[in-house]
Amino acid sequence: MHTDGYGGxxxxxxxxxxxxxxxxxxxxxxxxxxxxxxxxxxSAASAHTTTVTIDLTPQGCAPKPAKIAAGPVQFNxxxxxxxxxxxxxxxxxxxxxxxxxxxxxxxxxSGGFSLDLQxxxxxxxxxxxxxxxxxxxxxxxxxxxxxxSNPQLAAAVSSYGSYIDQNAASLVTHTQAFCQAIDxxxxxxxxxxxxxxxxxxxxxxxxxxxxxxxxTEIDGRWENPVTVASQFIGFHKIEQLxxxxxxxxxxxxxxxxxxxxxxQLLTLVRSAQYNPLEMASGATDxxxxxxxxxxSGEEERYSNTDxxxxxxxxxGAMEVVGLLQPYLQHKDPGLLSQIRQRNAAVATLLATYKAxxxxxxxGYVEYSTVLDPQRRQLSTAVNALAxxxxxxxxxxxx
Amino acid sequence: MxxxxxxxxxxxxxxxxxxxxxxxxxxxxxxxxxRLLAGAGAAGAGVLAGGLAGYFAGQGGEAAGSxxxxxxxxxxxxxxxxxxxxxxxxxxxxxNAVSGATAGDVRDLLHAWTSAAAAMTAGRLVGxxxxxxxxxxxxxxxxGSPVSRLTITIGYGPSLFxxxxxxxxxxxxxxxxxxxxxxxxxxxxxxxxxxxxxxxSDDPLVAFHAVRxxxxxxxxxxxxxxxxxxxxxxxTTSSSQRTPRNLLGFKDxxxxxxxxQASLMNGYVxxxxxxxxxxxxxxxxxxxxxxxIFVENWDRDYLQxxxxxxxxxxxxxxxxSGGTEFTAPDFDGTGSDGQPAIPxxxxxxxxxxxxxxGTRILRRGYSFTDGIDPQAGxxxxxxxFIAFMKNPAQFxxxxxxxxxxxxxxxxxxxxxxxxxxxxxxxxxxxxxASLFA
Lengths: 398, 437
Description:
The complex is a heterodimer of chains A (398) and B (437). Chain A is an alpha/beta fold and 398 residues long. Chain A folds into 2 domains: 16-28 and 42-142, Immunoglobulin-like; 148-395, A middle domain of Talin 1. Chain A is built from 12 helices and 11 strands. A 5-stranded mixed beta sheet of chain A has the order 3-9-8-5-6. A 4-stranded mixed beta sheet of chain A has the order 2-1-4-7. In chain A, strands 10-11 form a two-stranded parallel sheet. In chain A, helix 3 (151-183) packs antiparallel against helix 7 (251-270), helix 4 (187-208) packs across helix 8 and helix 10 packs antiparallel against helix 11. The radius of gyration of chain A is 22 Å and the shape is globular. Chain B is α+β, with helices and mostly antiparallel strands. Helices cover 21% and strands 17% of the residues of chain B. In chain B, strands 5, 6, 7, 8, 9 and 10 form a 6-stranded antiparallel beta sheet that branches. In chain B, helix 4 packs antiparallel against helix 5 (204-217). The longest helix of chain B is centred in the first third of the chain and has 19 residues, at 103-121. Residues 1-31 and 33-67 of chain B have low confidence and may be disordered.
């Protein structure tokens, strides 16, 4: 999932806290649009929702009001005449994480976003304004059941943070080794080390996507979402040069920048906080990704090393299931058993493509040798797994 | 198979007739998704709070005045979608059980399908869950669309009765793949299937939504085998309907069995006591044939030859032996030249019951297109032929006769499947329990 398709050419923005509320708000809007009693539609949506107005100006993006109560919040963003400012983002107070945003507001346009806010301090960020960061304070009590008070969920979240940190750290070290091979001009060695580094990213990609542009810089594919040659700079540009163009020319600089972006990612994940919903929807996202870009061979189109990263997607998702197992055993044992069963079906199919040492030392055959009927089998199994995983999010949220 | 969000129990039509209550009730009307949603909109605050008490308010009440709000009852002696006056649109899917699926999985799936089909054909969603952190149970694209006489008809392919699910002993002896037949060049990608779903509606989105949601419910147990969309009916199945035209430009279905002809329905369409499997009594066999029409060639044929090929006048639909559309063809009649008025190889002659020992079938096909043939640049389309019958041998006999059909120059059968469609259900019954009884 490198892009959500409507990100205006920027990286995908994962907004776990907001997703459900946005969807719910859309339903309510759709509903009122069809209702004969159109006058009541606004009040229906706003009954429990706080509205925050943000005017984009050359000077900034002050939220009005700047202090609100916790709960569902509708942000209405308007650009009257700020030529240099075109978006407002809601970020965590350390600016590290985007929670919600409205992009592409040129003068005269308005838009908005909605999400459910817990108590705390947030920042409104509007790049291009003379004062870019503005405070938003959310008061009151956290709404809904708190997962922090559930020891099984709290332990799962904590372990998940460690898993993300470890994989981000391994991503950095394995990429450094990859870059060393490149710097030494050893293409054969680079070919072997490329998939070894990739798997760490593919286990934790939904987390990396939280920081939008970093995902594009590290993992962006040509036309997904990158359409400007100068912005095609990550893993897949190097992959293209090595496998399609058979050259290392230009790769040392690219690899160095890649390692730098990964270091940024590592720094960010080390201070990031997660929640069970992010874990659950991240697991589904990983398998969705396997079901689309891996099955088609699009992800590793030059190197044909899709199978090890397919396995990495599954590993990342099943890590989440493993961490949530103590909780799920009581909450929904049937779902847990269905997930295990469907994962076993995927594992059985994947095992048929294992090889030693395998193509480029990956432990798997080259993906181009997996023909359409076999890909279809894999696709069916992995879609069934994803369908089960999609039912995790509500189990950890209620 | 495990469903955390199984659709609610199927409701009898009588329950839908209960008067709606609550101040948010919109204008009285038949059950359309549009009205359901209007109800939700007016009760929007309740939706945000997670409540849906008023969601179905407004769906009961007076009989629908327009076709688009018309509901075809799901329950009855026979499955809907066979004798039902043919709707304008079709979505047809065949599915295969995935490897590892068990008899219990299939039984549970058919149970879930029953509830979902009962809900959708009544104009309801397959399930309701507006909790923000659960994927919506219904995919949602039909919200706001009137039910438009949606029917959902399911069938079981011969392969369902192999060794996998312990159903070998339940297989009707007449249920088998068709023998090789004239003028076919079958594409394996459009052939066979363990199960089929025929969804018909006057709204294409409503029909598509039905197949999509049933397939989604089946994920992990069944997978898509092939699917076809039909964009215009090519048969009348009721004397209340005007005769439509197929892509040849000719009226089609003039002499079809009509639902009102009970003796023909019982004699040629509904499975009766002759079957060796009592569970199938009241059911029917569905034969699906994907028939490509080489429309470019056909369109170059001169009018009289087109009419001689079919045996009818193109515009009026009258047989070449004279009269009007519904005049019985006189296969013995001759023209002024002394030759048969309806040529020896005309399609309607060779396909007629008079020419086939009285054999008839209920045709219920649709025009289709799959776009453009990438190799030839010509239209990939034609007739998605569906017919219901007491025994698939009826179709085989007719198709054997059509070996000499003058129309064969312009068509080719490229897909084929046979399914046994179980009889209708009473409220409380479900397809799974009936098959695995």
